[in-house]
Amino acid sequence: MTKEYGDELRKELCFLFYVTNKEIVNQFNQYLKRYDISFPNYIVLLYIDTDRPIYIKTLCEELYLDSGTISPIIKRLEKKGLINRIRTLEDERRVKIELTQDGIDLRKQFSKISEDVIQQFDMPEEDTVTYYNLLRKFTDRNIIEKYKK
């Protein structure tokens, strides 16, 4: 019996993480195309509360992004009219962001995207719940706890 090319690679955890992440982000992007935003823009918009402005520093901390990554996202979202930047009176270097009305309206349209993406994958609901719980546990233990130290 001959070994199929790539069988060993397909057993590697790093490969499974890579292809899974790539496919999930691609599925999200299929939905996000209609709103003309990228996956990172989507994550930022999901985080911003509609009721109050948030500091950019807090956004970086909560999304585990550095300012060099978040700054271009903020600029693109502002250019699209989805957010406003607000310099604080106490310290002009501190910047808050808030959703504009267009941003709030767009965010409301996001309510089912995650559910729709999950439906694209041929997985029984029990497996979907298990997968979600494993991701949640991994994130809580290895990312959230790590950065709170």
TrEMBL record:
PROSITE patterns: HTH_MARR_2 (PS50995)
A cellular component term, taken from the record's GO annotations: cytoplasm
Record has Transcription regulation as a keyword: yes
KW Transcription (keyword) present: yes
SUPFAM superfamilies, per database record: Winged helix' DNA-binding domain (SSF46785)
InterPro entries: HTH_MarR-typ, Transc_reg_Sar_Rot_HTH, WH-like_DNA-bd_sf, WH_DNA-bd_sf
Domain of life: Bacteria
Gene3D superfamilies the UniProt entry points to: Winged helix-like DNA-binding domain superfamily/Winged helix DNA-binding domain (1.10.10.10)
Keyword annotations from UniProtKB, A to Z: DNA-binding, Transcription, Transcription regulation
One Pfam family per UniProt: Staph_reg_Sar_Rot
Subcellular location field: Cytoplasm
Domain HTH marR-type: 10-140
SMART domains xrefs: HTH_MARR (SM00347)
Location (main, coarse): cytoplasm
Gene Ontology terms for molecular function: DNA binding; DNA-binding transcription factor activity
Family of this protein: Belongs to the SarZ family.
Protein name: HTH-type transcriptional regulator SarZ
Organism: Staphylococcus argensis
